[in-house]
Amino acid sequence: MTAGPPRGLDAGRGRDIPLQPLKDQQGEAEPRSPSGIAEFDRVCGGGLVPGSAVLIGGDPGIGKSTLLLQVVAALSRHGRSCAYISGEEAPQQVRMRARRLGLADADVELAAATSVRDIVTTLDRADAPHVVVIDSIQTMYLDNLESAPGTVSQVRASAQELIRLAKRRDMCLLLVGHVTKEGQIAGPRVLEHMVDTVLYFEGERGHQFRIMRAVKNRFGATDEIGVFEMTDAGLIEVPNPSALFLADRSGNVSGSAVFAGVEGTRPVLVEIQALVAASPPGSPRRTVVGWDSGRLAMVIAVLDARCGLALAGHDVYLNVAGGLRIAEPAADLAVAAALVSSLTDVPLAAETVLFGEISLSGEVRPVSQADQRLKEAAKLGFSRAFTPPGPQRREPPLAVEEVRQLQELVAHFTSQMSESRRAG
């Protein structure tokens, strides 16, 4: 007896899919298209891949449209044909921004459109542009759907049609995405699964620094960051973000510690600031900018339970200077040092860096890429580091003091406090 078609399928037969052994695929990797903007290319993994779809999200006014206009202008100078399609601005408004950025002579095609059917009809040709910007995906719509632009069904269907076009014509598609108040890209979460790369543009509108972070990348490393500075002439690359994040740092101030972190493949040094203040009876305040509030609560609990510090009844304010958001647990030790420094009013030596993960038992655990962190610190003039215990390093570039238990770090501040009192 012959088996019938699987349930859920009609009797019609689909076409055969050609299956090829992986070992027979001898083709070379797809050539990338570097824009020449090194920080953007770093986040993308070295440049844009033909046939890929990249989603860029960020708060309103953060600089997404400015950055992408600079990117397509740079790509056009390298011989790549580019099109910028805006669903929010007229071509004349885009030209005004280009003149302000000094890009008025860029060979970029402009259009104002929101109909996906019209966009596909225009671009589905043999001489299609190499790179297409859609600003933004929330303004696009398909006329065969009754829902309004920006709804879940419209965003999903519009993105699907545009991505299918990009794959068919081997073009790179750059989609701008609005974000919700929680910082997630508006629309269906499946949108992030449909694209090849997801980039988030971070930073405060009142702050000059902007950080582009890759949270998904099928063609490169994730958690890679690119750092820019917003100026009147647009976004300027910051090749050495550590020096910029520490530029306004003043020494001999309690509550300050320098964390030697790693973002993607690049070591980054950043100042962590803490303020511990007496709290009125009731619930103490916990305010965190640039770090995980749950992680801060854990560090405070360990300092209380394992080191005997009465932080639970104090207001605690924590800030990562420069607008950078830190996610790695290696910042635990630097956060603890900033908290204890503020509580005891004992400054940490200005030439000191810290990194290490703190466990619930109060142990300081090793973290990855310790040597890379130390080299970056030494390059910027730091001479001392508090680190977790690890393998013996050959000729470390600076003096290393291993911390096995969090109590050892607290003892450093209490001894300094006792010496200052005796001196006084």
Question: Which SSEs are present, and which pair or pack?
Answer:
Blueprint: H1 38-44, E1 53-58, H2 64-77, E2 82-86, H3 91-100, E3 108-112, H4 116-123, E4 131-135, H5 152-169, E5 172-177, H6 190-194, E6 197-202, E7 209-217, E8 225-231, E9 234-237, H7 241-245, E10 256-263, E11 266-278, E12 286-289, H8 293-307, E13 314-320, H9 332-344, E14 352-354, E15 357-358, E16 364-365, H10 370-379, E17 384-387, E18 399-402, H11 406-423
Parallel strand pairs: 1-5, 1-6, 2-3, 2-4, 4-5, 10-14, 12-13, 14-17, 17-18
Antiparallel strand pairs: 6-7, 7-8, 8-9, 10-11, 11-13, 15-16
Helix pairs in contact: 4-5, 8-9, 9-11
Q: Please tell me the CATH architecture of the largest domain by its name.
A: 3-Layer(aba) Sandwich
Helix-strand string: HEHEHEHEHEHEEEEHEEEHEHEEEHEEH
Q: Tell me the total number of β-strands.
A: 18
Supply the number of structural domains: 2
**Beta-strand residue fraction:** 15-25%
